[in-house]
Amino acid sequence: MKQSLLTVMSLFLLVWFSPVRAQHGYTISGRVTDAVSGAGIPFASVALKGKTTGTTSDAEGRYSLRLSELSDSLVVLSLGYRTQSYAIQQQSAQTIDAQLTAAATKLAEVRVYAKGGDPAYRVMREVLRRRDQFNPAQLSAYQYDSYNKIEGYINSFTRKNKKRPGLVGRFLGKLPAITDENGQPAVPVFISETFSTFYARINPELVKERIQKSRVAGVGVSDGGLISQFTGASFQQYNFYRNSLYILRKDIPSPVGSQWETVYTFRLKDTVVLNNAVCYEIECTPKRNSDLAFTGTVWIDTLQMALSQTDVRIDKRANINFVEELHIEQSWETLPSGIRFPTLTQVTIDTDQPVPNSPGALLRFFSASSNVIENKPEEVAFYTPSLEIADDFKETDATFWQQVRPSSLDPSELRAMQVVDSVRNVPLVHFAGEVIKLGVLGYVPLGKSNIELGPILSSYAKNNIEGYRFRLGFRTNTGFSRKWQLNGYVAYGTLDRQLKYSANVEYIISRKPWTVVGIRHSYDLERVGISSDNIGNNSLFAAYSRFGNISRPYFQEENLLYFRREMKGGVTQTVALRNRSFEPLFAFAFQPQPNDRDQTIRSTYQTSEFIAETRYAPDEVILQNENARVSTGATRKPIYTLRYALGFRNLLDGDFAYHRINLGIRHSFRVGVLGRTYYNVGLGIMPSTVPYPLLYMPLGNESSFYVGNAYNLMNYFEFICDRWATLQLEHNFGGLLFNRLPLIRRLKWRELVTAKVLVGSVSDSNLAMIPKTGTSGEAIEGFSSLNHTPYVELGYGINNIFKVLRVDAIHRVTYRDNVGRTGIPVTPFAIKLSGWLSF
């Protein structure tokens, strides 16, 4: 749609400035010169006052205008000079010579330009100087109505150079299709339309989107709730006034950002009229073809030196996986305050073929903003939650969409919306969609019972304690209830012949704000040093830890009651009561505390604790899929998590009174052209005397795979701390070096470095709780603790090998002579593999 609009405008301007129009009878010509030196001023803008007609002077300062009608004056302007107006006589031909006087900033501009170079650099320097004046981020707040349309197609499955299309190509050739702009068939597999209201507040920086209506049709899409939130304005923000644009998890420098002169080369092509304004047409290209940067054109308003339009792209020479070309077109308009605002945006992503002769995909994103309201911020509480969807968002008709669309759809787009339903109902396509859903969600619907079985990843394991472990899990969906959520599992081991289980019931008290209460009861085999507290959300590593030789295993019975509420400004508060038992299957015992009446050495215990957790994530967007909540992460601000646990003695048979406090900070930031840095910081203290399984155990990794949140050369249970500080850092250069090496540039490898540091200690009282022998006289295994030297491991690696593999070489810098828990020395160096699918 946007491309057709640009084509019409180009044809209009071509006819408008065509010499054929001279027959209507008016000609103005002359020369634009410097009032002091008399030298001609190139590329000066000459336009009729109050009209859209204009031109630019040539290299000698000469110009000529052929007109069908006149106005009262001629406006002449050039960067670095004061604008001048000259009266026009009512006659068919006349000469107006303009003499411009240098502006106050003339000296600095002329001095730079005197070194040579294209005049575009003078324009771009002025754009950078004024960009804060026009950046929407300078408003105290803004809101607007947003229409978003997303289309997905499978294309490139028929080619003229393919004599015999493959099986997939023949199958796709039989599906309903439309014809794309290249005249080739394209099968629509996803179409969505979303209408919402988007709100933004600058101080504090908060955003909110209310999705009012949405309709989604696509292969593998059964419920539009979650998908509709992904297709809204929250994920279609493209502000070229920022230093970089975050697209496909890549930081792409903006042509008008702070790195403009470092990354780009500019050339002034022409001066044209866009949206009733005379604009410089400036071409931008990366200084190095392999750089992740845009190639294209920006149009700069000659009067305001502000963005008017952009048409830029990134081709396959840049280091983006699966992308043949990324194309962004955007139009900017001036608001009453003078701020520039992007009103129309179209993004096209044409993917390459994963393997030779395979089909490709084409994605189109269209976004239109209207009814912009400036500088009327809402209260801070209004922006929580940052994303919400109306209860009746599915209830729409054709009349509604005709009213909110910025322009009528062309015939191919209308046909695409009709054809996609036919495509997804083809039996084989429907089956493929269900397989995709299973791979993404991990759950299989159980008929029409509103119960889903899974996750598949945890269904089977084999280890030395349980033998073959089989697990059957389930969860309910919204068809079961919009208030109650049930989930759980049963598991059985063929060797220990023990039944394990878990049952969780959660009740949704309120959706606005999101408030839930839940209760869980479980009984299962666990291992010391690997728990949900340190594994986090790494479900793959949790499933892997069930395989192989399980060291220091124990059975745990847990009862948990929790309450969670989403507060204002990105704050989520959780409070819980938890009771746990510890029944070891290894040689374990602990000394009673000195003030205990019973000084008998024991091997089992119970804990009862109150937990309070405050999570602050002001930049996070939460998606709500009916009864489920999904975080999309944060891009600009850190996420803070403060957790406090208070242990009670003699409450629900709790054996210990203790305190535990820990703080976590997670964030990433851009380091200019050097790439992006990710870091996690952890701080904690447990100033109490308790058995060592209750202390802090950093997550080790004895596998051959790299684990992001683990110390990859530390053994399981190698160190224990009751005071600790951690830093885990990773910097991705994004191919900064490899892109400049001709022999490996085509491989699209990306270099990275990692560093992980642990500082900690254990008090003498906690060390003293470990007896030499247990209740039956067996020797008790102890543990290692850090001294004044921190644990450090450093690494370097290559990512994006075959687009999915990552290789890390890791060096253990300290404690290289430490002896592991089995008496075998630790590994000081290792190469570990992992799989990372990224753009």
From TrEMBL:
Pfam families of this UniProt entry? CarbopepD_reg_2 (PF13715), DUF5686 (PF18939)
Record's keyword terms, sorted? Carboxypeptidase, Hydrolase, Protease, Signal
This entry's Gene Ontology molecular function terms read: carboxypeptidase activity
Q: Does this entry carry the keyword Protease?
A: yes
Signal sequence segment = 1-22
- Whether Protease counts among this entry's keywords is yes
| Record InterPro entries | CarboxyPept-like_regulatory, DUF5686
**What is the protein named?**
Carboxypeptidase-like regulatory domain-containing protein
